[in-house]
Each structure stands twice: as structure tokens, then as C-alpha cells.
Specification:
It is built from no helices and eight strands. By secondary structure, it is an all-beta fold. It has one domain. A hairpin with a 5-residue loop joins strand 5 and strand 6. The radius of gyration is 15 Å and the shape is globular.
Amino acid sequence: MNKIKVQAMESFKVYDSAKTNLLGEIFENKVYEAKPNKESGEYFVNDHQDRGVFVGEIDHNGDLKLDEDFKRVGCSICGDEGYILSHRYCNNPAKHHGVRKSLSFLE
């Protein structure tokens, strides 16, 4: 499991169950680097105060499932760092004309 880049779709705050303690704050359109917890298969980003916020996980099929508040950004073929699993998560497939077929073995 590698780090990934995700972008927040909207701003939000995460509180504890009593809604008294702020556990994290995410800003709309900000790109975050998510790091894996290798034991659980979950991914977390650190907010501006270094608090961990859940963004997604690898499911039992090995697919990345992101929380609805985030989208995947970056691609190994585009040269962006922070890629994971395969090219199928790329948000810019038009940039890879002629490359897609040769990468099918990665998926």
C-alpha cells in the first residue's frame, strides 16, 4: 500500500460522538496526501493541526473505496506522486493516448 493524493469535495469538521471535541477539519478543494494504515487497510490525511481524518479504505477485493467527501487525484503515468494500485484511478485518461492498452496487465 502506498500513499495517495485526494482532494476534498467540500469543507467539513469531524467531532467526537458527544460533538464536543473537534477531531479534524478539512477544507474544500484542498489536496491532501493520504497515508495508509497497513494493518487496517484504511487511509488517513492529516489536517492543518496534524489530526488524522479518515478518507477511505481498500475493500476485500483490493479496490480503493474513498469516502464521498473526497476524490482521487494524481497518476503514476502523469508523473504525479502518490499513486496507488493502478492507472484505472487516473482522473486524466486523455493524457495517456496509446498507453492505456499496454497497462491493462496492471488492473
